[in-house]
Amino acid sequence: MAKDKTVYTCSFCGFQSSKWLGKCPDCDQWNTFYEEKRPARRSAACAAQGSEPLALSAIAAQQDARTPTGIAELDRVLGGGLVPGAVVLIGGDPGIGKSTLVLQALTRLSEAGRKVLYVSGEESARQIRMRAERLGPLPDNVLILAETSLEQISAHISECKPDMLVIDSVQTVYSADLESAPGSVSQLREVSARIIQQAKQTDTATFLIGHVTKDGAIAGPRVLEHMVDTVLYFEGDRGHSYRILRAVKNRFGSTDEIGVFEMSAAGLVEVASPSELFLSGRRNQTPGSAVVPSIEGTRPILIEIQALVAPTPLAMPRRTAIGIDQNKTSLLIAVLEKKIGLKLFNQDVFVNVAGGVRVNEPAVDLGIVAAIISSRLDQQVPPDMVLCGEVGLTGEVRAVSQIATRINEAARLGFKRCILPENSKKNMTDRHGIECICAGSVQDMVDCIFKLR
Ligand code: TYD
Ligand code: MG
Question: Cis omega before residue 275 (within 30°)?
């Protein structure tokens, strides 16, 4: 009989080596290697299925077989619905609402006549029932299986042949074929590979729920993200009730759409108009605040950028940014010092995107700059004004995409004026009753809003 081989695996990234190493050569983490036995023979379930090469044109085309989940915000992120056989990995902090989201989706799918199976390794069937009771009338046809053994789960899937399957969470499932503990890298790799293989063979759309590490990445080997078709992150601030679902990889759709939900006493509620939600806490008459029309995917969202500039006792003043890139903030501060002559070297600068959203679109630059100047001069940006434009290192304001969509959203929420890049003006067709003021440089914007000199 072939002997089991000992391998050392990095618990962070899954890198394998034949001897123990202090530092992982792949991910540079220290002291992450642990010993495990690799079975000499892989189980039959993993044996590759035989298939023949085919001409691309000879492959039978699939009609648009997407199944809408019934939750519009989830469908938007998935690219229109679930594709048969697709495997979707959902990651997110504990308690953010992953289990709630998939249970709501399964409920809708079962109401639409689909056969659905919810496998839970974290909660008992009774706990899931309690959650479902909070979410509304109990669905009749959602099958619940509280099980952690991969072999058992596999057998149940083959038996009930569901159209949609949820594994909550993939870290709790273990295979008896492997010696290592549930949740270890080798278990995770094996378990996921087998579930994915079964999903593809039986055309079962599958949601895998994954734990995240303290840095926010999905726990386990990086290869997990390569193996699945779609990776979604469910994020949000514990202090706020809304949640954002974001795709970081999607084989069947675009990755720049986001879904916005609000966690309520009766589960997750879709937010059709996120701008209203994000601007709801805004106070009109305060310096240090600017509203920018940002684009997330195909959807415009108005967000409030806040800045606080305060004298510092420190030799090295602080520059803190939440929700936007720290380096970008430093860069914009340098532009303000050099091009506008705004003294910030003895000031702490804090920039925050209100509501805890994250933006990384260059079009918000002008809003950040306006908020900083506004706080420094203690003069407010007019409350009926929005700003958009990318700021370059020479202080110029550069064109942004989809200007008409942005203006339209600002008009819808009652804004009256917009400062926009000079070069974007030619793309403006309809102004929706908004007064458009063009700025070629940051100085133009300052001249328009603040009386610096
Ligand atoms: P859950 O889906 O269990 O999170 P995860 O699976 O990501 O760990 O969500 C649990 C949180 O959501 C919990 O803090 C309570 C809150 N919640 C509500 O506010 N309303 C609800 O109707 C439900 C079901 C949960
Ligand atoms: Mg859960």
Answer: no
